[in-house]
Write a structure and sequence with these properties.
The chain is built from 3 helices and 3 strands. It is an alpha+beta fold.
């Protein structure tokens, strides 16, 4: 039982670290001054460059529209990042972790 727990931890920890990094990048974008005035294209470039700096390649130019939604509000915008990560365990059994975070910028 202990060996299985350790093995699963080795599979889960990198996924949760990546999710934590994406959350941190989103929080930093939310706190940036004048970010609400940026265009959607500028927001996309900002997010991709920050994720690239953190070595997160899960979200890229090719899948951005599928994984990230930017919606304009009267005061600013909301940005939602949603994806799932799969980690193969054995044979045809995989571990799936869903991730979703929304930030709202007034």
């Amino acid at each position: 039982v202990i060996a299985i727990s350790v093995w699963l931890s080795f599979k889960l920890v990198p996924i949760y670290l990546q999710n934590g990094t994406v959350s941190s990048v989103l929080d930093n974008i939310r706190q940036e001054t004048d970010v609400a005035k940026k265009s959607n294209a500028d927001l996309q470039q900002l997010l991709l460059s920050r994720l690239g700096f953190e070595k997160i390649d899960r979200i890229n130019q090719n899948n951005f529209a599928e994984l990230v939604k930017i919606e304009r509000t009267v005061e600013g915008f909301s940005m939602t990042v949603q994806y799932d990560t799969r980690s193969k365990l054995v044979a045809n059994i995989s571990l799936v972790v869903d991730y979703k975070k929304t930030i709202k910028v007034p």
